[in-house]
Specification:
This is L,D-transpeptidase catalytic domain. By secondary structure, the chain is of the alpha/beta class. It is built from seven helices and 16 strands. Strands 1, 2, 3, 8, 9, 10, 11, 12, 14 and 15 form a ten-stranded mixed sheet that branches.
Length: about 325
C-alpha cells in the first residue's frame, strides 16, 4: 500500500511539474510576439524626423498593418511601403524630397523616394480645398476631390495603358505606356477603387496633336495616334494617387507585380483633427504627443480633413452648376 501511495504521489508531482512548464512556454510565446512587434535594431537608425528618416508613429503603424495582412494570408511580399504626406515635396534646393518609404526587413534594406500628393481643387466661390506644390494642407476621401487620403491600403492588380507617343528625335517617336497599381483600402480608404486611387509614374504626354500613322497598333479607326511631349512631374502634385519618378516607379511596380504588399499613408483623419485642435489651442503637435512635419506646418498653418459626407455633395452640386464645356477636337499635327 505504501509503495502504491508513493507511486501515486510521484505521478501527481510529475503532473504538477508538467503543468508548471506550460506557463513559461505560453509566456515565452507572448514575449516573442511582443518582440516581433518591436522595431528591429537595424531599422531604428532610420527612425526620426530628419532627411532620409521615417517618423516613429508612421513606421509603427506601417509595420502593424503589414504584419496583420501577413497573418491574414493576404500578403507574402518581404517588403512593405509607407508614406508621410505631412513632409514637404520640394525642399529649398529644388529637388524632390523623400517621403515614400520602402522597407524590406528580410534583407534589412530601407529606401526613401519622392512622391507627389493630391492637388485638391478650388471650386471658385464655393469651397477651396486645393494644395500647394510643397505641402499638403487639405486631405479627404471624397470622389473627384483629388485629395490624398491617409490610412491602410493593399496593392492590387497592375494595369498598363497607352498614353500617347512622344518625340525621341526629329525622325523617331516612342510609345509611352504607363503602369497603374490599384490600391484597395479599408475603413476611410475603402473607396480607393471607386476613386481610382493607386500608384504610377509621375509622367504624362502633354500638348497632344493627332498624327497619321495607320500602321501603329494604337491607331484609331481613322489611322491617327496621339503625339505630344513627355512631361515628368515628380516634384508636382497628383489627382490623389501616389506618384513616383519613372525610375522609382519601375522598381516599385516590379516589386508588387503579382505579389501584393501593404502601404500605410499618414495622416489619417483622426491625426489631422487632433493636430488642428492642438494648433487652435496654441500648442505644437509635439507638445500634445502628436506628429506633423514642422516645416510644412509652418507653411500650411492648420491642416484640414474634408469628410466625403460633407464634400461630395458640394462637388456634385458644383458640377451641376458648372457643366463642362463640349470637348474640342484634338488638332491634327503639322506635317514634318
Amino acid at each position: 500500500m505504501r509503495s502504491r501511495y508513493a507511486l501515486r504521489s510521484i505521478v501527481r508531482m510529475l503532473s504538477l511539474c508538467s503543468l508548471s512548464i506550460i506557463v513559461p512556454a505560453a509566456a515565452s510565446q507572448s514575449l516573442a510576439a511582443e518582440r516581433q512587434s518591436e522595431i528591429p535594431s537595424w531599422l531604428t537608425a532610420y527612425v526620426g524626423q530628419g532627411e532620409g528618416q521615417i517618423a516613429q508613429p508612421i513606421l509603427q503603424r506601417a509595420r502593424a498593418l503589414y504584419m496583420r495582412k501577413v497573418s491574414e494570408g493576404k500578403v507574402r511580399n518581404p517588403c512593405y511601403f509607407a508614406m508621410d504626406a505631412t513632409r514637404p515635396n520640394n525642399p529649398a534646393d529644388g529637388k524632390s524630397a523623400g517621403r515614400f518609404y520602402i522597407v524590406c526587413e528580410a534583407t534589412q534594406t530601407f529606401r526613401v523616394v519622392s512622391s507627389g500628393h493630391g492637388s485638391g481643387r478650388d471650386l471658385k466661390g464655393v469651397a477651396d480645398f486645393g494644395n500647394g506644390r510643397m505641402c499638403a494642407r487639405n486631405f479627404g476621401n471624397a470622389m473627384d476631390s483629388n485629395l490624398t487620403m491617409g490610412g491602410s491600403y493593399v496593392t492590387e492588380e497592375t494595369k498598363t495603358s497607352f498614353k500617347g507617343y512622344y518625340r525621341l528625335s526629329q525622325s523617331k517617336d516612342a510609345a509611352f505606356l504607363r503602369t497603374f497599381i490599384q490600391f484597395d483600402g479599408e475603413g476611410e480608404t475603402a473607396n480607393a477603387r471607386a476613386r481610382a486611387i493607386g500608384g504610377h509614374a509621375a509622367a504624362k504626354v502633354a500638348g497632344i496633336c493627332m498624327k497619321k500613322d495607320p500602321q501603329s497598333p494604337y491607331a484609331n479607326r481613322d489611322g491617327y495616334v496621339p503625339l505630344g511631349k513627355l512631361v515628368e512631374y515628380a516634384g508636382g502634385r497628383s489627382d490623389g494617387c501616389t506618384s513616383w519618378s519613372a525610375s522609382d516607379a519601375n522598381q516599385i511596380i516590379s516589386m508588387v507585380k503579382d505579389n501584393p504588399t501593404t502601404l500605410y499613408i499618414y495622416p489619417e483623419s483622426s491625426d489631422i483633427k487632433a493636430v488642428a485642435k492642438a494648433v487652435a489651442a496654441g500648442r505644437s503637435p509635439a507638445q500634445s504627443g502628436l506628429y506633423w512635419n514642422e516645416s510644412c506646418l509652418k507653411e500650411i498653418g492648420t491642416p484640414k480633413f474634408w469628410p466625403r459626407e460633407t464634400l461630395e455633395p458640394i462637388i456634385v452640386q458644383y458640377k451641376k452648376d458648372h457643366p463642362a464645356p463640349p470637348a474640342r477636337p484634338i488638332p491634327i499635327c503639322d506635317p514634318q
